[in-house]
Design goal:
The protein is α/β, with parallel strands linked by helices. The chain has 14 helices and 17 strands.
């Protein structure tokens, strides 16, 4: 049923898709042809930046580089290789075909690499530092957005001189269309990396800036409204509470209000900036918007993150899927003859993993893959560089010796020739998918005299448990309230001009230089 829904959604807006495909399938252009020149980012002296720039330049000299008109960066937040494999099997099994040999849309891209995700200071990084690597071309400290490692965590005074230009800001200043789409809050780490400059990723609204002066540091939502991002052409995601004052009721949930303590309604301020602009907060607003015009769009569909794909149909006011937002954005951005740069994030893959809830992580991975398929359909490989990757992985593992065709969300059923059986040494069954750490190590068994939860952290028998239920948490080894990221390399898939530079084992921040060089926005080191 899940894939049937995806297939149905894929047929929506067919006319817009065809129009966009025509608009983006003409011969590639360079920035010079439209009067634009490559821009030297202010972080060009950073050692991480220079190292990646030199590496990519050497690769270009060896392999050549065709110019791209458009760039789309797809980031599956937390979409490690085990997540891709499990989602592939899940997709095939859901469609009633062989899961192990199935192919996701992202896996059809002809070039691929392993991307190293460590940050300046962590072996296992967070989304802020990893997204900054891809958006700005440098590795920075975990928790930082758009500033170099020279800044100090949570210290406003340390920021001046450490700010980094992003590919999206450079594209906007160069006259290209720009778009940022996410199922997370638009002020969250990954989408925030396209415009924010903060030494603390949690400073999404002024009320989040505990211990920091809003007079000297701007919160992330305010930076979106007051900086270059205010002129991005398409911004779609969640997180409207960060833009609304505490006195303002949420337009969808009457019992909720905004988060801002400064009394500012940033959605209204954005709309008043001039030119054709439209804001939207629900499905009706999205459906009413004309994405074939040159109107700028700000859609914030939830107070916090958008719904998990598994829960989206139950949303009160309705919200578009990631695929639908991607189709709409490509339609709108394709109106610019000079091309566009866009980020699309499947943000809730990560959140489901943190909760130890594999089924929601896999459903959101498939929703993300449907967005990739839509982009491949609507653009041409002749002029559009598409990169699909993750910011980091998670501790999800595919384990045991399950037989071919065993339900990926089910208990391990080992074959007769397997090195191990279907039961653990404790005599109890276990699932194919599990986590190295997380909340699945314990289960709530009741409450104490004060009403506080009581947990049992011993492994329990899954014999009569529905491991495919929506709220089932896969068992984990180390008990943690929130499962952690993983530190292994992640996959990067690519097609279009510049995709030939995505191969082997690469540094994550090289992706910025590959995209920037392909679309002609970033100069070669020799030209700096």
């Amino acid at each position: 049923m899940r894939l049937a829904v995806v297939a149905l959604v894929s047929t929506l807006a067919l006319a817009a898709a065809c129009a966009a495909a025509v608009a983006t399938s003409t011969a590639p252009s360079t920035r010079a042809s439209s009067g634009n020149k490559p821009i030297l980012p202010i972080q060009a002296d950073d050692s991480y930046y220079k190292s990646a720039a030199t590496t990519v330049d050497t690769r270009i000299a060896e392999r050549g580089l065709k110019p791209a008109r458009n760039v789309i960066l797809f980031i599956g937040d937390g979409m490690g290789i085990s997540t891709i494999t499990a989602a592939r099997i899940y997709a095939g099994q859901s469609a009633g075909v062989d899961g192990e040999s199935f192919h996701l849309a992202m896996e059809t891209l002809p070039w691929s690499a392993l991307s190293k995700t460590y940050s300046h200071d962590y072996q296992v990084s967070d989304s802020a530092a990893t997204a900054t690597a891809m958006s700005s071309g440098l590795k920075t400290k975990s928790g930082f957005l758009g500033v170099s490692s020279a800044a100090n965590f949570g210290n406003c005074a340390s920021v001046p001189g450490t700010e980094a230009d992003t590919l999206f800001e450079i594209a906007q200043r160069s006259g290209l269309a720009t778009g940022v789409i996410s199922t997370a809050r638009i002020t969250h780490a990954t989408p925030g990396s396209t415009y924010a400059k903060v030494p603390h990723r949690n400073w999404e609204a002024d009320s989040d800036m505990r211990g920091a002066s809003s007079d000297t540091c701007k919160d992330i939502a305010r930076q979106l409204i007051e900086g270059a991002a205010s002129d991005f052409d398409v911004i779609l995601g969640g997180g409207r509470s960060k833009f609304l004052p505490k006195e303002t009721p949420d337009p969808e949930y009457a019992d909720q209000t905004g988060d801002r303590a400064d009394g500012r309604n940033l959605m209204e301020e954005w709309a008043a900036k001039g030119g054709a602009r439209v804001t939207m907060v629900d499905r009706a607003g999205f459906d009413a918007a004309d994405f074939t015009s040159d109107v700028k769009v700000l859609g914030l569909f939830e107070p916090s993150h958008m719904q998990y794909e598994l829960d989206r149909e139950q949303d009160k006011a309705g919200e578009p899927s990631l695929e639908e937002m991607t189709r709409a954005a490509i339609t709108r951005l394709s109106q610019n003859p000079d091309g566009f740069v866009m980020m699309v994030e499947g943000g809730r893959i990560d959140h489901a993993h943190h909760a130890g809830n594999a089924i929601r992580a896999l459903e959101d991975t498939l929703a993300f893959d449907a967005a990739v398929a839509a982009a491949l359909e609507m653009t041409s490989r002749e002029d559009t560089l598409i990169i699909v990757t993750a910011d980091h992985s998670h501790t999800l593992t595919i384990n045991g010796y399950p037989q071919r065709g065993n339900p990926i969300l089910g208990l391990v059923t080992a074959g007769t020739s397997a090195e191990g059986g279907s039961l653990g040494a404790d005599g109890m069954p276990y699932t194919t998918l599990s986590y190295a750490n997380g909340p699945g190590a314990c289960r709530e068994t009741g409450t104490d005299a004060e009403g506080k939860p009581v947990y049992d952290c011993k492994r329990y028998d899954l014999t009569n448990v529905d491991t495919m239920a929506a709220d089932f948490r896969q068992q984990s080894l180390v008990p943690l309230y929130s499962e952690t990221h993983g530190g292994e390399d992640v996959a990067a898939f690519a097609s279009g001009p510049g995709a030939n530079l995505v191969s082997g084992v690469i540094e994550q921040n090289e992706l910025f230089h590959i995209m920037g060089r392909a679309i002609g926005l970033i100069p070669a080191p020799a030209d700096e």
